[in-house]
Backbone:
DNA sequence: CGCTGATTTGATGGGATTCAAGTAGCGTGG
DNA sequence: CCACGCTACTTGAATCCCATCAAATCAGCG
């Protein structure tokens, strides 16, 4: 883990990627100062508002993004319109399918999002040059694979109640890892429809299960999106 | 793709890994002759019969396997026993979670299986030394991630009928990529229970859907496991 | 305030599970 | 060779969870 840290010399880290320092997971954290300098000339900080599409399903991959702030959702759609969200990317995740001409899924801003955008050719050159970056990308791919498989269990084997509890737990733990104790306070970065599409449910079922969690005193809900988890332990107990 | 081929010199490929040549996907195909020679001293060809556990969920990772023949299933289990299969590995896939002390899931022989087993330390040293091997492993991780996400759509959004059709199609296309035309003939490498655990269904539902596909003239079933797909087109049309 | 889209709540129906028999395939041993 | 038992699979009936359809309520905003 820590060997990647050698590459980082704070004084030389461009402002663009400053937030990468925080957790050492973004691609910038895997580069040497020289590479970072090179990179900084070709990257653009891009703002997206909720709902913006970063890459379409089947579209040509022209650039890659590093999430700096906000949440990006990855989704796939069947011909008849049924949709499934297949991943959520939080800062400082890397977004984009390497080694593929076209994106196998849609990437869309789930909340307001800030990304560090790199042209495809540029990133691929860097990947060739930097073993540390390749290692970083392999790490993320493996972590995402673990997450995808964990979620397959949720999709295939959990009840609606367990699914909703599992998602709330996932978000509570991802969005603000610093909060301690039994309680968590956060805004859902996604609509009821997004939640339904993530869990393989309908919005009505999601709503009913949320209401049930509220009625049972495990969470409170205000203004639809604002969630307070009153007892992480009891929430975990409902995740199946 | 083809740049990996440079590493292969047929005359020097140890017998152990000969079948790797066929499709250029196994780890052996990513090594130089020197590395292959080194590897061959530390690998063992291991036979497993259907049902054998290669690695348990949560068990320490002591070695990695390269599937040479047969099918390995990856599964995860909830505390109360509900099980979900999260992946199938066909030859010449690599099995084992890199960069993790313990396996996040169970790996089990779904059919009789032959693997090329490498001690953990050995493989990790090779990974450090061989950029081509790292690249190969990144490729597989990305491909598995694509497959996992594709399957999430199936688990979350497809009906039981579509799920069963999707699995039959998956297996038909994986097991024998050489067969051409509209028909496919193969033996299911897994029981009805395995299929149910893969699709997030019960064995009864799987059975009913198979019967329906048979009644509709899309497949024939003999001896439970022996499947003939009569029309790939019509099968695809049922995949949702 | 009144419009609009998002969410909740209610009533109903259907698809998948559950529970329960029944059947087929297969090795064993009489 | 066939009875026997075993396991895997199939089939049937009842139940239940979640989807669907419909309506009400809420939140945000000009």
Residues:
């Amino acid at each position: 883990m820590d060997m990647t840290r050698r590459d980082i010399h704070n004084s030389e880290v461009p402002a663009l990627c400053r937030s990468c320092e925080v957790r050492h997971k973004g691609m910038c954290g895997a580069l040497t100062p020289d590479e970072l300098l090179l990179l900084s000339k070709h990257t653009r900080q891009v703002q997206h508002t909720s709902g913006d599409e970063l890459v379409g399903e089947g579209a040509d991959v022209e650039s890659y993004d590093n999430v700096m702030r906000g949440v990006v959702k990855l989704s796939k759609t069947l011909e008849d319109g049924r949709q499934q969200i297949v991943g959520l990317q939080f800062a400082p995740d890397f977004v984009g399918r390497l080694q593929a001409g076209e994106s196998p899924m849609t990437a869309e801003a789930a909340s307001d999002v800030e990304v560090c955008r790199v042209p495809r050719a540029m990133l691929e050159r860097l990947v060739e040059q930097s073993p540390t970056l390749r290692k970083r990308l392999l790490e993320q791919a493996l972590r995402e694979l673990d997450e995808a498989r964990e979620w397959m269990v949720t999709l295939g084997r959990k009840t609606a109640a367990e699914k909703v509890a599992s998602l709330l737990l996932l978000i509570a733990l991802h969005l603000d890892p610093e909060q301690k104790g039994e309680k968590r306070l956060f805004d859902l970065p996604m609509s009821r429809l997004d939640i339904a599409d993530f869990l393989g449910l309908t919005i009505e079922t999601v709503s009913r299960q949320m209401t049930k969690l509220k009625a049972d005193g495990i969470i409170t809900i205000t203004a639809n999106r604002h969630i307070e988890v009153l007892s992480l332990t009891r929430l975990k107990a409902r995740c199946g």
Notes: The helical segments of chain B are 20-23, 33-40, 120-129, 131-157, 160-175, 192-199, 203-215, 232-237.
